[in-house]
Automatic annotation (TrEMBL):
InterPro entries: Amidase_dom, AS_sf, FAAH2. Residues 25-471 form the Amidase domain. It comes from Brevibacillus formosus. GO terms for cellular component: endomembrane system. This is Amidase. Coiled coil: none annotated. Pfam families: Amidase.
Length: 494
C-alpha cells in the first residue's frame, strides 16, 4: 500500500488522530515493509517488534482517552545506532560494543517517546561513525534504495535509506562532518543539521564510559532529523531541541521567525569550490533550481569566491577533530602518524593534525574557529540563505577500503567526479564540514536527479540560531520543486 508507506510522519500522525488508522496498524504495516525489503537494503539492524507493538497499543489507549501527546503520537520511527536506547543494542558499529544494550535512553530518544512516537528499531552506521559509506563488521553494508550497487552515504546511511525506502517515517542521526547531509543527498530525503548546541548530545555513543575519564568530541557535532518533508523536520526539531532540562526550548539565542509572507528571499549561492568541482549533473540541477527561484521573484545572487577561507576552515576542522578524538594517543605514536601521513595533508587539509598537541595550541585553533564563525556570520548578514552543493557526486558505487588506520578507513583509490579523479574525502566531505566549523544550521533537500536517476540535494545554510527561520525559508524554496519522489524497489514476498 504505497500511499500508507510514503506518508510523511506528520501525515501519519494526522491519520492516527483522525482514526483512519491505529498506531498498532501503522506499526504492523511498517514491520511488514521491513520484513519484505530490509534484506535488500540492510538499513535497520535492530528491532524489538513486541516492545514496539506494546508502545503502539499504549498510544492507541491514550488516544481513546483523549490524551494526544502531539503530532507524532503513535508514529513509527527509527533511531541511528549511535544513540542510547533502553533495551535495544547500541553499538556505533564498533565490534567491542556488539551486544551492548543500554539501560537508559538518550535525551532525544526520551523526548520522542514522551511525544508519543513509537520506536521500532535502530539504523545502521559506519564503524565509529567515521566514514561516508555505511558498513561495519557487526551488521555489514547498507545499500542505496535508488540503486543497491551504490552507497547510501554515511555515517547516517541506514537512517537515510530507511526513510527513503519507507521503512520508517522519521529518523534521527548525527553529523560532525556531513553524516546527516551526505546520506540525505545520496538517498533523496531531507535533513536538518541544527545549530551546534541546539540539540543535546546526552546519550550519544554510549558504552565508552570506561575508556576515558573525560568526554571528547566537544565541538562541531550536531544531532538532527532525516525525513520525507520539511514539515517533518520542523516537528522533530521542536521535540528534540533544547538543553537537557528544557525539551522543546532551544538552548541559545534562537530567533522565532515571522510567519511566511510574500517578501522575496535574498539568496546567495555558489556552484563549486575552487579546485573541487562538482559533477555536471549537480551543477546543472543547481543552476536550474536557482533560475526557478529567480523566476519566482526571489533575489538570487551568485558568488564566485567562497564566503570563507576554505583551506583554513578545513585545516581547523581537522585540528579540532584530531585534538578531541585522539588526545589519548601517546605522543610518540602521534608523531609517527604525523610523519607517515604528512603527504596526505597537502591533498586533504581536513586530515591535518594538531602538532604538538598542547593546551596553548588547542586554544589557538578554537580561537581561529571563532574568527571563521564571525567571518561567515558577517557574510550571512547580507542574505537570508546560502545555497551550495552537498558533495561532488551523486551516490557512487560501493567502494572498498584500501586499509584501516586504527578504526579510520583509508582510501587510496580516487573517487571519480565525471571523468576526473578526486580524493575520496575531498569529494565526499569538503562541502559539508565547512558548516560544522561555523556551527551553522543546514537543511539538505532534494531538488532533482542525475542522468542515472540518482537523487541530487543541496545545502541551504542560515545564520546560527535561526533554525526555525531556516526551516520556513527552505519550505518556501521547496514549494518550487516537484513533489517528493520515492525510489522504486521490488518488494519480496513474505
Amino acid at each position: 500500500m504505497k500511499e500508507l508507506t510514503y506518508l510523511t510522519a506528520t501525515e501519519m500522525g494526522t491519520w492516527i488522530r483522525e482514526r483512519k488508522i491505529s498506531a498498532k496498524e501503522a506499526t504492523q504495516h511498517t514491520f511488514r515493509r521491513i520484513a519484505s525489503l530490509n534484506g535488500k537494503l540492510n538499513a535497520i539492524v535492530a528491532c524489538d517488534e513486541q516492545a514496539a507493538l506494546e508502545s503502539a497499543k499504549q498510544a492507541d489507549k491514550e488516544m481513546a482517552e483523549g490524551n494526544i501527546r502531539g503530532p507524532l503520537h503513535g508514529v513509527p520511527i527509527t533511531i541511528k545506532d549511535s544513540f542510547a536506547t533502553a533495551g535495544l543494542p547500541t553499538t556505533s558499529g564498533f565490534p567491542p560494543l556488539k551486544g551492548y544494550i543500554p539501560q537508559h535512553d538518550a535525551a532525544i530518544v526520551r523526548r520522542l517517546k514522551q511525544a508519543g512516537a513509537v520506536l521500532i528499531g535502530k539504523t545502521n552506521v559506519s564503524t565509529l561513525l567515521m566514514d561516508l559509506q555505511t558498513d561495519n563488521d557487526i551488521y555489514g553494508r547498507t545499500n542505496n534504495p535508488w540503486n543497491q550497487e551504490r552507497t547510501s552515504g554515511g555515517s547516517s546511511g541506514g537512517s537515510a535509506a530507511a526513510v527513503a525506502a519507507g521503512l520508517s517515517y522519521l529518523d534521527i542521526g548525527s553529523d560532525i562532518g556531513g553524516s546527516l547531509r551526505v546520506p540525505a543527498h545520496y538517498c533523496g530525503v531531507f535533513s536538518l543539521k541544527p545549530t551546534e548546541g541546539a540539540v543535546p548530545s546526552t546519550g550519544h555513543m554510549p558504552g565508552f564510559e570506561g575508556m576515558s575519564d573525560y568526554t571528547s568530541s566537544r565541538h562541531m557535532a550536531c544531532y538532527g532529523p532525516l525525513a520525507r518533508s520539511i514539515e517533518d523536520l520542523e516537528v522533530a526539531f521542536s521535540i528534540i531541541s533544547g538543553g537537557n532540562g528544557n525539551a522543546g526550548l532551544p538552548h541559545g539565542p534562537q530567533v522565532l521567525p515571522p510567519p511566511l509572507n510574500d517578501q522575496p528571499l535574498h539568496i546567495r549561492w555558489i556552484e563549486e569550490l575552487p579546485g573541487y568541482p562538482t559533477s555536471r549533473a549537480i551543477r546543472d540541477q543547481l543552476r536550474r533550481f536557482v533560475k526557478i527561484l529567480e523566476q519566482q521573484g526571489m533575489r538570487v545572487e551568485q558568488v564566485t569566491a567562497p564566503p570563507l577561507d576554505v583551506r583554513k576552515t578545513w585545516e581547523t576542522w581537522g585540528k579540532i577533530i584530531d585534538a578531541e578524538l585522539n588526545s589519548t594517543t601517546p605522543t610518540l605514536m602521534r608523531g609517527l602518524a604525523h610523519l607517515l601521513t604528512m603527504p596526505i595533508y597537502r591533498q586533504v587539509p581536513t586530515a591535518t593534525m594538531l602538532i604538538p598537541l598542547t593546551f596553548k595550541n588547542y586554544m589557538r585553533v578554537l580561537t581561529i574557529r571563532e574568527q571563521l564563525i564571525r567571518n561567515f556570520e558577517q557574510f550571512m548578514a547580507g542574505c537570508d540563505l546560502f545555497l551550495c552543493p552537498v558533495s561532488c557526486t551523486t551516490a557512487f558505487p560501493h567502494m572498498a577500503k584500501s586499509r584501516m588506520w586504527g578504526y579510520k578507513p583509508i582510501y587510496t583509490k580516487p573517487l571519480y567526479v565525471d571523468e576526473n579523479p578526486q580524493n575520496y574525502w575531498a569529494a565526499t566531505t569538503f562541502y559539508t564540514n565547512l558548516f560544522n566549523v561555523t556551527g551553522s544550521p543546514v537543511v539538505t533537500m532534494p531538488i532533482g536527479f542525475d542522468e542515472q536517476g540518482l537523487p541530487i540535494g543541496i545545502q541551504c545554510v542560515c545564520k546560527r540560531w535561526r533554525d526555525r527561520e531556516l526551516l520556513q525559508s527552505a519550505s518556501k524554496l521547496y514549494a518550487t520543486c516537484p513533489e517528493w519522489k520515492a525510489p522504486e524497489i521490488s518488494v519480496e514476498p513474505h
